Amino acid sequence: PITVDGNPATAGESLNAGNTVATGTSAHGAIDFPDGSYLKLAPETSVQVTSVQLQKNGNLQAIALQQKVGRTLINVEHLASGASFTVGGHSVSAEVRGTQFEVQVNTNGTNLIKSFQGTVKVSGGGKSVNVTKGQQVSAAANGTLGPVVPIARDPRDPFAQAAQCASTVSTGTTAGTVQTSTGDAISTGQTAEVDYNSPGGTVSVALCYPGSFMTLSLIEPNGTEHASRNGTSPVTGHVSGPPGKWRAIVHAIDVAVAEAYAVSFATDAPCSANNVDDGVVVRETLSNSQIASALADSGSTGVSLTVQGASSTSARIVYYSNLGGVPISWTIDFYAATPDLGAVITQVTVRGVNVTTQVIKNLSSYGGQSISTIPSGFTVDRVYSCASAGGDNMMVVEGHR
């Protein structure tokens, strides 16, 4: 199970400073942040949110986490100038600006930090070092840092495989469609299945594993099975097909000692305002041109509603009005709180004065929350925002029934 402060957690649950998220023996969890940054928790991991600060425009100013034990994969969006993202281990800390890295805190108090992308500044024992892509650094229980060395092979580490697979399928595909899955380690004779609900187009898939020998089978929505792919990691495949549920079957052929694995999917579905609903796969879009047309048809004046920016893991909608001489604006970030659509208020201003804290406090007093989940009539798999070739920004929600 996954818990928050010792109580059973629910998807999309709001977190506040001081909350601790923990995973059980076979549980995998994730913490999502408004800017699209996220943290994935391996089984038997505990992380406390120590502080989250937002800028006036709703962007992240500072995030601080304390990892008590276990293994996490952290993906940080490129932060604005002056912003920070810090993860504390046992007697060490890792600070980044825009990168993907792993933190492992062992029960004996030792630490291991790996960088899969970008640079991580690791501090401990009165010393700081920069760990760049493909490197790792260990730290003793007292914080003393070891030398920075190339990442060592670890058959039990799913996150090293996840980072490799996600990078593999990112080329030539739409960023928001990337989905990476990890599972329990498997050994010779065992199989594992990973499903992906594709909105259509060319499906790219990758299997990553640390050694030995595994193969990958890809099954289309119509049941057509493609010949088992094999070779050195990553094992890849690219198949064009209609919207539907695709399946990847991982076969452990010669794996004497159980190894971790990861499977990533992505498609080249274009960033365009077209919806899909074939009874299984659902894709819904909301573009700025659609919003502008709806506002014009309604006769609304002095009001604007726009999808702002682009993110592979979230979508931001900004509202502004000046009715009766009172300027009001608010910002809501949307994300996948599977099975629902998650939403968080990140900024509210009235006459240029930031009243976000007061609004959230009042919502709470009436039983509301700053973060909520919105039932959508289908299971939400992914939420992202992008810009079409013509510059039309849009929010995309993909899922399945």
Polypeptide structure, described:
Helix content is 8%, strand content 52%. It has helices spanning 158-170, 288-298, 356-365, and strands spanning 2-4, 7-8, 20-23, 29-32, 38-41, 46-54, 60-75, 84-88, 92-96, 100-105, 111-117, 120-124, 127-131, 135-139, 149-150, 179-182, 191-198, 201-208, 213-219, 225-229, 235-241, 244-254, 262-267, 276-277, 281-287, 303-308, 315-323, 326-337, 340-350, 353-354, 371-374, 379-387, 393-400. The protein has 401 residues and is mostly beta strands.
Please write out the topology:
Blueprint: E1 2-4, E2 7-8, E3 20-23, E4 29-32, E5 38-41, E6 46-54, E7 60-75, E8 84-88, E9 92-96, E10 100-105, E11 111-117, E12 120-124, E13 127-131, E14 135-139, E15 149-150, H1 158-170, E16 179-182, E17 191-198, E18 201-208, E19 213-219, E20 225-229, E21 235-241, E22 244-254, E23 262-267, E24 276-277, E25 281-287, H2 288-298, E26 303-308, E27 315-323, E28 326-337, E29 340-350, E30 353-354, H3 356-365, E31 371-374, E32 379-387, E33 393-400
Parallel strand pairs: 7-8
Antiparallel strand pairs: 1-2, 1-3, 3-6, 4-5, 5-7, 6-7, 7-10, 8-9, 9-12, 10-11, 11-14, 12-13, 14-15, 16-23, 17-22, 18-21, 18-23, 19-20, 19-22, 24-25, 25-33, 26-27, 27-28, 28-29, 29-30, 29-31, 32-33
